[in-house]
Description:
- With 261 residues, the chain is an all-alpha fold.
- The protein has two domains: 46-209, Tetracycline Repressor, domain 2 (Orthogonal Bundle); 214-260.
- 78% of the residues lie in helices and 0% in strands.
- It has twelve helices and no strands.
- It is globular, with a radius of gyration of 28 Å.
- It starts with a helix and ends with a helix.
Amino acid sequence: MAERRQRILAAARTLVAKRGYEALTMRELARESRVTVPTLYNLIGGKEAVLAAAVGEQTARFLGAIERRAGQSPAARLLAVVDACTRELLGLPAYYRSLLHLLYRAEAASGVRTRVDRALGGELAGALGAIADAGELIAWADSRALLRSLRSQLGAGALAWASGVLADDAFSAAACYDACLTLLGVTTGRSHSELERAAREAQAAPDSRLPVSQQAEARPARSARSERRKKAGAQRGDRAEERASRPPAGTQRASLSKEQV
């Protein structure tokens, strides 16, 4: 039974990656997973149950992939959650690009989305709690507000990646950078130092220097600045050529003196 269930969920991921969740039919899923339609309903349930089971399995894998080391610092623990999240999405890009739009935009997927948010939020909350317990979260900072901010940033970044706004090679760095910027203003001590170091490293990736929400606006601004620099350089070159073409001041005075004589 477990083997058939795994086969069904694997087939569901493949079909969703190819054609999207809306195009998925139970008949096609049964055919691809080599079971009958009644067996499919008996083992898992209808289409929404298949979605929930597939996402639940992936969520469990994400939680299991979070790097946990003895002596791991609180900041490293939080960044490990962010890293595990992006690695999970990048591991099955076509599937998650289709799935993310459904999770965040379809009412039918609200239950699944809630379970995913709860799992991710639990890991982030644990890491924030560890920073606070270490005495490295400033007193006025509200952990719940920070958690909401971190979750919304990860969601916005994932949707930007799923929509093609953010490239694969920049997604992980941008997610790390956004998380670091959120926490740098409210952390102290070792956590602050580690977050600053991680942010500096993330800056090397394309477009990771800005939050995802600002990258599209930043590109035209960078282009405009580049054009202004080119024009300024051309103007400086023109002035230099003009100065070079003028005769030396002493030569001009000598010529005037001869004419006066």
